[in-house]
Design goal:
Blueprint lengths: L4 E6 L5 E3 L1 H8 L5 E8 L5 H8 L19 E7 L7 E7 L12 H12 L2 E7 L4 H5 L7 H4 L14 H4 L2 E7 L6 E2 L2 E2 L2 H8 L8 H16 L3 E5 L22 H17 L13 H16 L6 H32 L6 H22 L4 H27 L1 H9 L7 H19 L6 H22 L5 H36 L2 H38 L3 H32 L3 H8 L7 H8 L2
Keywords: Coiled coil, GTP-binding, Hydrolase, Immunity, Innate immunity, Nucleotide-binding
Pfam families: GBP (PF02263), GBP_C (PF02841)
InterPro entries: G_GB1_RHD3_dom, GBP_C, Guanylate-bd/ATL_C, Guanylate-bd_C_sf, Guanylate-bd_N, P-loop_NTPase
Length: 600
């Protein structure tokens, strides 16, 4: 792009709307994107920094009056200067705090979109980072109302924001102070950390002081600060984009150079939840999804956005794979007639190429999506079975508390009650996938009571006790073995149907997804560890303890997710393409060709 274009504008009714021409630009970008968004109060020189990142003197509009120049969000896509095969997407946002706006929530929506779309967020302000500057950043404290992780209806839980939020840079313009803290020279980053330092105490005044600082420290995985001196004589500031470099402060140019180089070197490619790399095309889908959600009055949800992108991208991936297969076979038709083995050989070749094309384009490995649904299904089944057992065994539990079984003949009564539970449970859970596993746990829990009652029953001989102790488990063990055998046969059949090369590709893609998820979790954990250390150093024991609980929950969720994917993927990989076709009605007319394409 030789100049920026408007990406998100404000319609006449005040609602945000996406510009189709900008989406067309993004649709053509197949490369990964590094997205840098700048936010800040209007008339603070945000656009100048974005122009410098684009390697240009002019581009984004620089206003020279008290009127906010940039409206909505403007976009400029340029080749990344240091990362090969990567596009740098620059987003210049409408100035916050413009007096002409009538909607007080408009600024927060713009700020939220900048956070959602960027991999690096630059906050541009003027003067110093004092309490007033931080209080003006109330938008960061409202993000829990404008961004959700898993569901628009979820309770407020911002502990996971750090996994998905961009890195944070505070650019302080027209900075005139000495970088000195307690009589000692300080770096720009130390100045930022000093400004974000929390106060001890629990009064409302202290809580209000700490809230925006806590949000910045908690939400963003990394923080960086640059302090820019006055660029030139005040009379020339309005013409900054046209000034000769000799007329601009060398110190200002030096900081600008460091700022640009840091972003070029350190800003990461934009990733979505679970570490999926965002291309220009996917970014366009995200923009439309988020803006349409906000325009409808709903709250953008990261999980829903990922699912929407998966459906869009995977549908396109299936079509692309089919086109590759059909194109190859159509060319082969020109050589007909051929021997059967020649046609079969070419079919296998084009089928493999189609699969490779699909795998390259597919968004957020469908194996992971399918495995996720299977895990959710198993969890729902587990809960239903546990609830049912709890209900069915309530009477038995009450009898145990009252000691009704602790008498001669009590074991027979206990066994009869248990058999009744088994019959009712089996009749109501015959199709539940976790029925056997849940009941096995239940029996193990009841075995302690069973043995105690058995030993206390004076009527039974030792031989009878041993027989009865085993009998109650026998029927369930037989059913469990039958179920295990059935599942084993299903796995073997699935493995037989699969192709080794296709399995290798699926495994490779899944491993890459798992690697990205681990990296995502590690970045979030590193950020939380740094924050916890800082809290402990300053005496915030209670906040540090809460951070420990969040980290333990992170570890648990990551371990569960990895275990779930590993357990299920081995048996379901061959069903993935089949799952896509069944779940995409728009492709129903192409099912036969696609089955041939994928050799299913």
């Amino acid at each position: 792009m030789d100049k920026p274009v408007c990406l998100i504008d404000t319609a006449s009714d005040g609602k945000l709307c996406v510009q189709g021409s900008a989406l067309q630009v993004l649709e053509q970008i197949q490369q990964p994107v590094v997205v840098v968004a700048v936010v800040g109060l209007y008339r603070t020189g945000k656009s100048y920094l974005m122009n410098r990142l684009a390697g240009k003197q002019t581009g984004f509009a620089l206003g020279s009056t008290i009127e906010s120049k940039t409206k909505g969000i403007w976009m400029w896509c340029v080749p990344h200067p240091t990362k090969a095969e990567t596009t740098l997407v620059l987003l210049d946002t409408e100035g916050l705090g413009d007096v002409d706006k009538g909607d007080s929530k408009h600024d927060t929506r713009i700020f939220s979109l900048a956070v959602l779309l960027s991999s690096t967020l630059v906050l541009n302000s003027r003067g110093t980072i004092d309490n007033r500057a931080i209080e003006e950043l109330q938008y960061v404290t409202e993000l829990t109302e404008y961004i959700k992780i898993k569901s628009p209806d979820e309770a407020v839980d911002d502990a996971e924001f750090v996994k998905f939020f961009p890195s944070f840079i505070w650019a302080v313009r027209d900075f005139t102070l000495q970088l000195n803290i307690d009589g000692k020279d300080a770096t720009e980053d130390e100045y930022l950390e000093f400004a974000l330092k929390l106060k001890l105490g629990n009064s409302s005044q202290v809580n209000n002081y700490n809230l925006p600082r806590e949000c910045i420290r908690k939400y963003f995985p990394s923080r960086k600060c640059f302090t820019f001196p006055f660029p030139t004589n005040p009379d020339n500031v309005s013409y900054l984009e046209t000034l000769d470099p000799a007329e601009i402060s060398q110190r200002f140019l030096e900081v600008t150079g460091r700022f640009c180089q840091f972003i070029f070197d350190q800003s990461q490619v934009k990733n979505l939840k679970d570490g999926h790399t965002v291309t220009g095309r996917v970014l366009g889908h995200l923009v439309k999804t988020y803006v349409d959600t906000i325009a409808s009055g709903a709250v953008p949800c990261l999980e829903n956005a990922v699912i929407s992108m998966a459906l869009i991208e995977n549908e396109a991936a299936v079509k692309e794979g089919l086109e590759v297969y059909q194109s190859g076979m159509e060319k082969l038709k020109k050589s007909f007639p051929l021997e059967l083995n020649e046609i079969t050989s070419e079919h296998q070749c084009f089928s493999l190429m189609a699969t490779q094309t699909f795998m390259k384009r597919s968004f957020r490995d469908i194996n992971e999506l399918f495995d996720g649904y299977l895990c959710q299904n198993e969890q729902a089944s587990k809960k239903r079975c546990e609830d049912l057992l709890s209900s069915l065994s309530a009477t038995m539990t009450e009898k145990l508390k009252q000691g009704i079984f602790a008498k001669s003949g009590g074991y027979d009564l206990f066994c009869k009650d248990l058999e009744d539970i088994v019959k009712k449970y089996n009749s109501q859970t015959n199709k539940e996938v976790k029925a056997e596993a849940v009941f096995k746990v239940f029996l193990k829990q009841k075995s302690v009571d069973s043995k105690a009652i058995l030993q206390a029953d004076k009527r039974l001989t030792e031989k009878e006790k041993k027989i009865k102790e085993k009998a109650i488990l026998l029927e369930q063990e037989i059913k469990a073995k039958e179920e295990a055998q059935r599942q084993l046969l299903e796995k073997m059949e699935a493995e037989r149907q699969s192709n080794e090369e296709r399995m290798r590709q699926m495994k490779e893609k899944m491993d890459e997804e798992m690697r990205l998820q681990r990296e995502e979790a590690e970045r979030a954990m590193d950020s939380k560890l740094r924050e916890q250390a800082a809290l402990l150093e300053k005496g915030f024991q209670e906040k540090a303890d809460r951070m420990s609980q969040e980290m333990e929950e992170f570890k648990r969720q990551n371990a569960e997710a990895e275990k779930c994917v590993c357990e299920v993927s081995a048996q379901n990989t061959p069903q993935i393409i089949y799952y896509i076709i069944l779940k995409m009605p728009s492709l129903s007319g192409s099912r036969n060709g696609l089955f041939s394409c994928m050799s299913l």
